[in-house]
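Dear colleague,

Thank you for sharing your sequence with our group. We've completed the structure prediction you requested, and as agreed, I am returning the results in plain text so they can be pasted directly into your records. Please verify that the sequence below matches your submission; if there's any discrepancy, let me know and we will rerun it promptly.
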Amino acid sequence: METGLNQVKNPFTSMERRGMCRLVFLFIFFSLAYSYYSGTLLHQLCFPVLKFPYVDPTYWAIHLLKIPEWLTQNFWPAFGFDAVLVATCLLCIFFPDRRWLIAVFFILYFFYFISFNSYSTLHTHSKIGILMMPVPFIVFRNKSFTFLWEGMRYFTLFVYADAFLWKLFRNTFMNWEQGGLIIKANLTPYLYFHPSSFQTSFYTWLLQHDHVAGWLFNAGMLMEASFLIGFFTKKFDKYLFVFSILLPAGFICFADAFFFELTILSLTLINFRAYRGNIGLSPR
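Please find the predicted structure tokens below.
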């Protein structure tokens, strides 16, 4: 198995890079489509007033410039912004070599990211993958791209390994009631409003057998812990890829936390060199 250093010395080809770019922006397009479906694009926010920039100098600077305020308080500029955001995403799929398009998309999504988090009054974690994944495709040289792609892989490992370490140092794994408590804290409204659904029956069974919920929670912790291995070897990346899909699925099932956008980072765990010659539409 190649180390990260060896892979930088053996950079991705232009064809592989184009195929990877198309995969990334196809995922981003579906993310934007879901944002439209859920009514969270800027022109759909209905002129929000409350905002929460938190203690973050970047958010403060953007709000001092009044960019989110101007966009969200004026329908047609917000609609135009969203249209250009979606259009540049589609153009990046069809023209993955146009780095300036990728740079434009990154800038636009950065402002969307700040505005969404500010007016949702919650700094979401899941959209960070959508924001960061286009960055490697902006650079010109394939070697620089490979270096940044490897960096995104380590970022993916950090996201999950850090979640494990946070639970470890808080001794969360010692509390076998934690799984049941998470269900109670996040799914009580669902249980109340849907008393006859299959999901309610399943959650009720878990609450009545809280040791099972505890085992599921600790299984999730072990999956998060396994990402520490990825810092030392790539031999288990295919298993980490599966875990990176299962964990967000577990979040939505047991914590009502919809983190599907985080799975875009799972692409960094795929060995695209194994498909050399099969991705991308042009051999140039």
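Summary note from our side: The chain has one domain: 4-275.

Kind regards,
the structure core
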